[in-house]
Amino acid sequence: MDTPRITPVADRAILVVFADDITEAAHEAVLRLDAALQDSAAPGIVETVPAFVSLLIVFDPIRTDHNAVAGLVRASLSRPAARTASPQIHDIAVCYDGDLAPDLDDVARLAGMSRDAAIAAHLAGDYSIFMYGFAPGYAYMAGVPESLRLDRKQSARRGVPAGSVLIAGPQCLVSTLTMPTGWWVIGRSDATILRDDPERQFLFDVGDRVRFRRVRRDELKGPANG
C-alpha cells in the first residue's frame, strides 16, 4: 500500500497498518513511527505496541481522541524519519542434540539437506525481533533462511518444554512456557527471556537482533540441560 491504513480500535486505540505482507521495509516503518511517537511525548498516548507490519497506539480517551491521534500519526509520518535506537545484539545458546530437537531430522529431510546442514543454515540466519505475542515472552523473530522455511506442522506437539527453539515459515522463537505448538522444534536454549524486573520484563526489545550459537548439552544451564 502507498500510505499506511489508520483504523480506529474500540474507544481508546488506533491501528496503523503499513503493509499486508511481512517485509523488512514495513517493519522498519513501524519502528520509525514508534520512535517518533516516543520522542513526541504527546499527551494522552498511553502505550504503543509494534507488530510485524502495524503499530497499535493506545490512548486515554479522556485526554484525546481517535481524530487527534490519527492527526499526530500523519504529522509524524510527514516529518523526516525519526532515528530508531541502535538494536542490541543478543548471543543465544542453542543445543541441537537428539531429544532436545525432536523435529530437526524431519526439517532436514523436508528441506532436502543433512541434519548438520540444517543446523548450519539455522545458525546462519539473520534474526531480528519483530514483535511479542501469543504467550508471555514469545518474541517473534524474522530471519529464518529460505532453505528452512516450512509451513507449520499439520498437528501440534503437546508438552513442548520452555526454552525450545521453534521455526515456522520465516519466523523463529524461543519458547518461555511448556505448552503445545505446531511449529517445528529444532533445539533447546537456556536463555532467560522472562525477567523478574518490572522495569524490563523481557530480555529482548522489538528491533533487537539475535545470533544463535551452538553449544553442547552439558553447556546448557538449569532445566534446559536435561
Structural class: alpha+beta
Number of helices: 4
Q: Cα distance, first to last residue? A: 48 Å
Average pLDDT for all residues: 91
* Strand proportion: 25-35%
Helix-strand topology string: EEHEEHEHHEEEEEEEE
Q: Give the overall shape.
A: elongated
CATH class descriptor of the largest domain: Mainly Beta
Low-confidence stretches: none
Q: What is the correct CATH architecture of the largest domain?
A: Beta Barrel
Spatial arrangement of strands, main beta sheet: 5-13-6-7-10-9-12
Give a count of the beta strands, DSSP E runs of length 2 or more: 13
Give the total of domains: 2
Largest sheet: 7 strands, mixed
The third-level CATH topology of the largest domain is Cyclophilin
Radius of gyration based on Cα positions: 19 Å
Structure report:
Keywords: ATP-binding, Hydrolase, Nucleotide-binding. Residues 4-204 form the Carboxyltransferase domain. This is Allophanate hydrolase subunit 1. One of its GO terms (molecular function) is hydrolase activity. With 226 residues, the protein is an alpha+beta fold. The protein has 2 domains: 5-78, 2-Layer Sandwich (Gyrase A, domain 2), CATH 3.30.1360; 89-224, Cyclophilin-like (Cyclophilin). It contains 4 helices and 13 strands. It has helices at 24-40, 66-78, 104-111, 115-123, and strands at residues 5-9, 13-17, 45-50, 54-59, 89-94, 127-132, 139-142, 157-160, 164-168, 171-174, 179-181, 184-188, 209-214. Helix 3 (104-111) crosses helix 4 (115-123).
